Amino acid sequence: MQPNSVFITAFESVCCAGLNSESLFEAICTHQSGIGSYDGYVKDKTVALGKVPSRVSLETLLHRVCETVRIQRGIEDFYDTLLVVGSSVGGMQRTEEIFFRDHSYAQVDPKRHIIHTIASSLHEVYGFKDDISFSTACTSSANALGYAYEVIQKGVYQRALVVGFDTLSSTTVLGFDALGVLSTQACCPFDEKRQGMNVSEGIAVLLLENEPVQGCVQLKGVGYSSDAHHMAQPSAHGEGAIKAMQNALECEGVLPHEVDYINAHGTGTLANDHSEACAIEALFGSRPFVSSTKSITGHTLGAAGALEAIICVLALQKQVLPPNTFLKTPENSTLRFVYELLSHPLRYVLSNSLAFGGNNISLLFGVFDEG
After folding, report:
1. CATH 3.40.47.10 describes domain 7-367
2. For a FRET experiment, which of 105, 226, 271, 283 has its CA 20 to 30 Å from that of 247?
């Protein structure tokens, strides 16, 4: 039996650089970073973070985004739909707010702290057929997309709603500060003078189906690898990233020279950028265009895979290359970095997500040929 094709038929997002996907993509194309400077997260230190510019809670915005996707697709409900959530923070910020207010955990509801709290909140409103949640650090929503891809391809479900969601938690910010990888300004991935990363919050929702609609993009393949090189550091030469990208290409039988653009994980940390650049160079040479969009969005952690999937879908729909921002002097002189918005024919696009523990995911997107 031939596997089903998988199509991205609707999507929407919210992040520090835009309250919808179109405004986000415009910010990327015009180098308008959403990163700001904030005190109060790290003692005696100002750090650059990505906060959503809204007085409405992220949970409220999440419901609005899901409703936008439902209306965009023109369906009445999600009763026949699998909900797949990817998050690294879950309800941690709510727990923090209660603890900082009361200086006690007495009023904390454990069920509102765990990763599954996001799915539970959405299930109460929409009554999905079933749900599952993934928490694999920075690959969480990329893993969610991979799972949705597999169950649709195998005919288990015809439709899945993938949600990437993470809030700006103090625990997370302090954790990355303890690792010494926070930047005091908007990050500049792949640059020789990069300082580090920007922790951010964001929401990204994509509807995946086994039947196409006009203007949709195909999710062509998903590649996984788990190199377990180190708890927090990637291998210097990117062996895990190479394997993930190879596995994604093999899903569709795509050759490396056929990939037109790579949306890199590109966090702005010394170790990550060097490792990923080595991996891309080893597998692709200087053939595909490369950019990281995290200088605009920051690193939305568990939401990053889904958010950057939307960026890749828009790049394919508009046939343009999203540029790097703040990249002046690349550490790697071989890669074909994009500096300004370019119109360019795109057929295949890769998006990388690389996380702690050496768990790596690469997503392959392609133009749907209606002929």
Report:
1. yes
2. 271
Q: Name the residue among 47, 264, 31, 262 with its Cα closest to residue 138.
A: 264
Q: What is the mean pLDDT of residues 100-108?
A: 85
pLDDT in tens, 230-239: 777 788 889 9
What letter represents residue 365's amino acid? F
Tokens of 323: 């540029």
* Whole-angstrom distance, CA of residue 344 vs CA of residue 334: 20
Just list the catalytic residues.
138, 265, 299
What is the predicted pLDDT for the residue at 371? 59
Indicate whether this model's pTM tops 0.90.
yes
347 burial type by CB count under 10 A (0-12 exposed, 13-18 middle, 19+ buried):
middle
- Cα–Cα distance measured from residue 22 to residue 32, given in angstroms and rounded to the nearest whole number: 13
Look at residues 258, 172, 270 and name the one whose alpha carbon lies nearest to residue 220.
258
Say yes or no to pLDDT of 324 above 70: yes
Mean pLDDT of 144-167: 98
CA dist., res. 258 & res. 288, Å (int): 8
Percent share of the chain, pLDDT over 90: 87
Q: What are phi and psi of 236, to 5 degrees?
A: -60, -35
Q: Which helix (H) or strand (E) holds 206?
A: strand 202-209
Q: For residue 115, what pLDDT is reported?
A: 87
Matching residue, tokens 């037109």? 260
As a whole number of angstroms, the distance between CA 346 and CA 335 comes to 18
Q: Find the length of the chain.
A: 371
Dig out the tokens for 14 from the structure.
């919210």
Comparing CA positions, the residue from 302, 311, 298 lying closest to residue 139 is: 302
